[in-house]
Write a structure and sequence with these properties.
2 strands; 131 residues; 3 helices; mainly alpha
Length: 131
């Protein structure tokens, strides 16, 4: 569990314990002014209900945020994997092109090298004969 969740749980448990110990005071009716009228109602219970509603709204908002984060993370992972696959395919294509190029050019280079070596041998042989 996250530290924040533990702290909120401990605070709510403490509030519930406090309300239970003082329930007679919490449930005592009092006159409340609600702008357009006066109502006799237990102020403590009303405040506890308000705290409960606010806690529920917070929990729902937090859950929505967690779900949105998980969905975004999953989308980012899919995008990353897609980009990685494209990069791997591009790399494989480049390697294949390099292999094809080398298969074409190495025989040509061998022929040119042999021709150069033959010319060098002939030049060396003619230089020995003239000395």
């Amino acid at each position: 569990m996250k530290f924040r969740t533990i702290v909120i749980g401990v605070c709510l448990a403490g509030l519930a314990f406090f309300a239970l110990l003082n329930w007679s005071t919490f449930s005592r009716p009092t006159t409340l002014n609600v702008v357009v009228a006066s109502v006799d109602a237990p102020l403590g219970v009303i405040l506890l209900i308000a705290i409960g509603v606010l806690t529920l709204i917070y929990a729902v908002s937090l859950a929505r945020l967690e779900v949105a984060t998980l969905i975004e993370g999953r989308r980012m992972t899919k995008d990353r994997d897609h980009v990685r696959r494209i990069a791997d395919q591009t790399e494989e294509s480049r390697i294949q092109e390099l292999q094809d190029f080398l298969k074409r050019e190495l025989p040509r280079m061998d022929v040119k090298l042999e021709a150069l070596l033959d010319a060098a041998r002939q030049q060396s042989a003619s230089a020995r004969i003239s000395h």
